[in-house]
């Protein structure tokens, strides 16, 4: 299959063939020139999927939420792609299974595609590869693409905050350290969800979030989206249908107000930026040859400062 | 003070003046040309500090560990700089206090400097600014610079893993989601610390980690550093002196084997890379003018694909 024609692979992805989608994602992760050509080809077929970002701190129940959401979407006949950005080994490059394993009852359904991305450590490219996976699923005809990330880490927040609809999941009763992290992602929400609402302390979390949202509402703009705070329980299924309906309403709101164009634009900006960063990183990190290595040598001996070296690095990339 | 001469500010930083150090860090965060010049000047005076990376998942007790470590260093007369990378609002740009407040008993000591870095969201530059802060503290004569990050997020892991000595803090009895994250940083440790060893379930965590480390030991290399697994309790002070001694041993080991040069090199590589990424990001994100904006327009209309746009972006930066 290694010799599969580029256009044949792209055609199979466009037909929604599961094995080709998986293979295309793996190729895209390598960031090689061939993959770039294919991604450029696929890009022309994107733009139909609703890209939903879902984030929450560790322990918020976001992975269970994604699973339940996917089942609900399937119930209404929609195809769902999931790109889960997993914190994982910077050395092994492999994703931790963990949460993903629990999704196994979804994996036999061809209308659901789950991709778990590893944090790629020094090799970088996590954000770029994740956004590639979103494009592949979009081009392959998935109606909804859910990007799930833990709500910490610049790359992770970068990716989720440029989704068309951003859902932030909070759980009742998390510790101090966790709450501090949570504060960093609350502001990017289009929809707030409190999970585990079967628990007795859920009401406090709902009230706190609603209070916070009330503070942030700007008066006098009836066209503005009012960020809802919704209670759910994956256990009982409470609030899940309502959540799907609200995600759909948000998308409808974006379409009606024309705000969808701004969202598409910010996603594309991030996409271009992450590809550019990835090009810089891949031409530099771990290179022991010639010009790149020489740059580091000169900084080591303090013949050059890191800022001047960075400018030289960018020039060197363009001369390549 | 805004009109302070560049060289005067640099001189004051080199003299270790607290207000100038703080001001220099704020200037460096802006990434403006003037700050770059000053950073380049300061860089010539770096290279003496021992850069210690300290990471752990939320709830691991790493912030308390940093505090206790700092006090112990002070007890032996060493000056300690702390760069804490806080997950925080991508919009406000301000750091959450939280943990930092608890450090207040250290803040009146001029031999301790604590800088809390905000996650900078779409503006980027977190890793670059954090590494700038390390250089500033190094140049200002701090003997040890501790970089504290939560162990998730590519930028955060990038920064901590290039420290000369990497300490990974684990706490007994954390949940599943947290454990999955932890797996991603275990492999970067030069020293493992189990916190909260006054707790009854600490022994299991110590045993698990020691088992994992035993699996990873390569036979036949007596010169290799054997990663220790140490128990500590911030409450009782147990193991803290030993931890400081072990961090010193690791540094001595790096010096004796010459491995310190490779560590310095990988820190510099990351530093140059993050500056280059920051240049790319700052010339592109949110720019509504001319060439950059036109690039996004063409990708929006699918006249151009994101990969070609990224290459064009890098060329445009060099023509600037």
Notes on the structure:
- The structure is a homodimer of 320-residue chains.
- By secondary structure, the first copy, chain A, is of the alpha/beta class.
- Chain A has two domains: 47-257, Rossmann fold (3-Layer(aba) Sandwich); 286-319, no CATH class.
- Chain A contains twelve helices and seven strands.
- The first copy, chain A, has helices spanning 6-14, 18-30, 33-43, 62-75, 126-139, 154-161, 176-186, 202-216, 240-257, 259-284, 290-300, 306-319; strands spanning 50-56, 80-86, 112-118, 144-150, 165-170, 191-194, 229-231.
- Chain A has a seven-stranded parallel β-sheet with strand order 3-2-4-1-5-6-7, with helices on both faces.
- In chain A, helix 7 (176-186) links the parallel strand 5 and strand 6 (191-194).
- In chain A, helix 9 (240-257) packs across helix 10 (259-284).
- Chain A is globular.
- Residues 88-103 of chain A have low confidence and may be disordered.
């Amino acid at each position: 299959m290694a010799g599969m024609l580029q256009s044949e692979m792209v055609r199979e992805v466009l037909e929604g063939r599961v094995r080709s989608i998986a293979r295309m994602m793996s190729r895209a992760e390598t960031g090689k020139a061939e993959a770039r050509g294919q991604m450029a080809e696929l890009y022309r077929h994107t733009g139909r999927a609703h890209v939903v970002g879902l984030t929450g701190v560790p322990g918020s129940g976001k992975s269970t939420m994604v699973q339940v959401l996917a089942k609900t979407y399937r119930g209404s006949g929609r195809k769902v792609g999931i790109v889960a950005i997993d914190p994982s080994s910077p050395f092994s490059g492999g994703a931790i299974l963990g949460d993903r394993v629990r999704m196994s009852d979804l994996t036999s359904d061809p209308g659901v595609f789950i991709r778990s991305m590893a944090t790629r450590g020094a090799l970088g490219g996590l954000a770029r590869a994740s956004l590639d996976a979103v494009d592949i699923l979009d081009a392959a005809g998935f109606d909804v693409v859910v990007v799930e990330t833990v709500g910490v880490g610049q790359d992770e927040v970068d990716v989720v905050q440029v989704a068309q609809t951003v859902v932030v999941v909070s759980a009742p009763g998390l510790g101090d350290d966790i709450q501090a992290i949570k504060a960093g992602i609350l502001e990017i929400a289009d929809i707030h969800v409190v999970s585990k609402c079967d628990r007795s302390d859920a009401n406090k979390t709902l009230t706190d979030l609603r209070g916070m949202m009330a503070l942030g509402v700007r008066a006098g703009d009836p066209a503005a989206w009012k960020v809802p705070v919704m209670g759910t329980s994956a256990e009982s299924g409470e609030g899940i249908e309502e959540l799907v309906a609200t995600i759909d309403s948000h998308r409808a709101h974006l379409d009606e107000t024309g705000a969808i164009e701004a969202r598409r634009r910010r996603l594309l900006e991030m996409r271009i930026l992450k590809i550019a960063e990835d090009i810089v990183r891949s031409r530099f990190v771990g290179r022991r040859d010639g010009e790149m290595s020489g740059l580091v040598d000169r900084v080591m001996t303090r013949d050059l400062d890191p800022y001047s070296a960075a400018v030289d690095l960018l020039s060197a990339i363009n001369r390549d």
